[in-house]
Amino acid sequence: MIFAVVSVAILMTMVLAVVRALKGPTVYDRVLAVNLFGTKTALLLAVVAFLFDRADFLDLALAYALINLVGVLAVLEFFQNRSEASHNRMGE
C-alpha cells in the first residue's frame, strides 16, 4: 500500500517537472526540470523493482541515472559553449 502511494507521489512530481520543463523561463530551468524528471524516473524504476521483486530493474535504474547525468552535463556544456561563442561574436 505504501509503495503505491510513493509511486503516485513520484508520478506527481514527474508531472510537475514536465510542466516546469515546458514553461521554464530560462534554458537552465528547463535543463534542471529534465534532470529532475530523469532522477524521478530512476527512483520510480527502483520502487517498481522492489514492488515486483525484480532486481534487474535496479540495474536499469542505475544505468538510466548515469545516462541522465551524462546527458544533462552534455546539454549544459553545449549551452555554455554557445553563449560564449555569441559573446565572442558580439565583442568583435
What class would the helix/strand composition place it in? Answer: mainly alpha
Radius of gyration: 17 Å
Q: Largest sheet, described in full?
A: none
Q: What value does the average pLDDT take?
A: 90
Q: How many strands?
A: 0
Count of helical regions: 3
Shape estimate: elongated
Under CATH at level 1, the class stands as Mainly Alpha
Helix content: over 70%
Concise structural overview:
The protein is mostly helical and 92 residues long. 90% of the residues lie in helices and 0% in strands.
Structure description:
90% of the residues lie in helices and 0% in strands. The chain is elongated. The protein has one domain: Helix Hairpins (Orthogonal Bundle). It contains 3 helices and no strands. The chain starts with a helix and ends with a helix. With 92 residues, it is an all-alpha fold. α2 runs antiparallel to α3. The model has no long low-confidence stretch (mean pLDDT 90).
